[in-house]
Structure formats: C-alpha cells, structure tokens
Amino acid sequence: MNKAVVLLSGGLDSATVVALARSEGYDCYSMSFDYGQRHRAELQAAERVALQMGVVEHKVIGLNLDGIGGSALTDSRIAVPEAPTAGIPVTYVPARNTVFLSLALGWAEVLGARDIFIGVNAVDYSGYPDCRPEFIEAFERTANLATREGVEGQGFRIRAPLQMMSKAQIIESGTRLGVDYALTVSCYQADNEGHACGKCESCRLRAEGFAAAGVKDPTRYF
C-alpha cells in the first residue's frame, strides 16, 4: 500500500480526510501539532481519531507558535469572536499551515511517502489565506523544489480533497466512510474535556453543516 502523511488536528475536517485517504488505499501516518493553542482538547481528539481510523503511526510535534502570538487561538488576551466579523478573523494563526505542511513534508520524505493530505476548505471556512487553492498549489511547487525527493525522485503531491466541498458535503462523505464525529473537537475555545462553546465561528459552521446534511450533531456543548 502507498504511504500518506495526513495532517490531523482532531477536528471534523481532518478526521474526514483520514477516512478519505484510507478509502483510496493509503497507509496513513497522521501528524498533529501542540503549537500553544488554547483549545488543547483537540490534541486528545486527534489521538482518538487516529486510533479509531487505524493509522499506522500518529505523531505529535511540539511548536511554540504562541511565542509569536498574533492570534486569538494562541493568545488568551485576544478574545475569540462569537459573532461574524469582516475580513480575516483574529483566529487566523500566522503562517500555521505553512509551518505544518513543511514539517509534514519532512516526515513524508523520511517515510518515502509521496502524498500529503490536509483538510483545508475554501467554501464553508473562516477566510484564512492559507486555506486557498492558490496556497496549496504554491506549496506543492515549493515542496518539489526544496527536497531531494522533488529533485531526484517522483516528487510530492499536496492533497486537499475537501477544498471545494461544503461542510454538509464533508459530513456526508465522512458519515459514509464511518467517521465517528463524536470523537472530534472543532471549537476554538473548547474546555479540557472537549465541550464546545456553540458560539464561535468554528462551532457555527459545524452545527450548520450537520443540520444541512441531515445528520445528528454529536457535539458536546458546555
């Protein structure tokens, strides 16, 4: 079987991506990041999803993005918005997906994996610039310029299968593939047990997705 590295945050989207990669016949190696996020319950959720999905190896990498700051997800002094905002929201974490994909690229090269999966979405999402198709295409070019495998081997593919799907379509796909969404945590200000606020943008998108898909929402709220 082919190997794939899958970025697994512990949320709804990334859990679905693991299921999609497995359905394509990949042996999945999942990678999560302890980057100083306030909603640390997602790390436990990622471990649960990795176990349920039968990934070959689940790796957690420690980073210090809270040392940079600039985001409501890493700086407790910045409030998580509970109402829609204009422009790129303060929950954007500077350079997060660039850093995550770079580390996934390194692990893929070590493993001999050609494909890297990420659960970014450009339909029902918060408007983060590092979720756009242009970014994914640009990073793939960078990956194949900056690595030995890119120069001497077959190169890498950055796979973003959810990119043009609505949240309802994502949930429908995951449900067909047996994803247990009760294991996941999407809330930007979840408590230590993974209970969701039901008010932040991530909670709103998740709830709207379940409603539109006609699937019972298993989210545990405060």
From TrEMBL:
Q: What is its EC number?
A: 6.3.4.20
Q: Where does ATP bind?
A: 8-18
Q: Which UniProt keywords apply?
A: ATP-binding, Ligase, Metal-binding, Nucleotide-binding, Queuosine biosynthesis, Zinc
Q: Which reaction is recorded as catalysed by this protein?
A: 7-carboxy-7-carbaguanine + NH4(+) + 2 ATP = 7-cyano-7-carbaguanine + 2 AMP + 2 diphosphate + 2 H(+)
Matching entries from CDD domains are given as:
QueC-like
- Uppermost EC category: ligase
Q: Which Pfam families match?
A: QueC
Q: What does this protein do?
A: Catalyzes the ATP-dependent conversion of 7-carboxy-7-deazaguanine (CDG) to 7-cyano-7-deazaguanine (preQ(0)).
**What name does this protein carry?**
7-cyano-7-deazaguanine synthase
Q: What is the scientific name of the source organism?
A: Stutzerimonas tarimensis
Gene that encodes it: queC
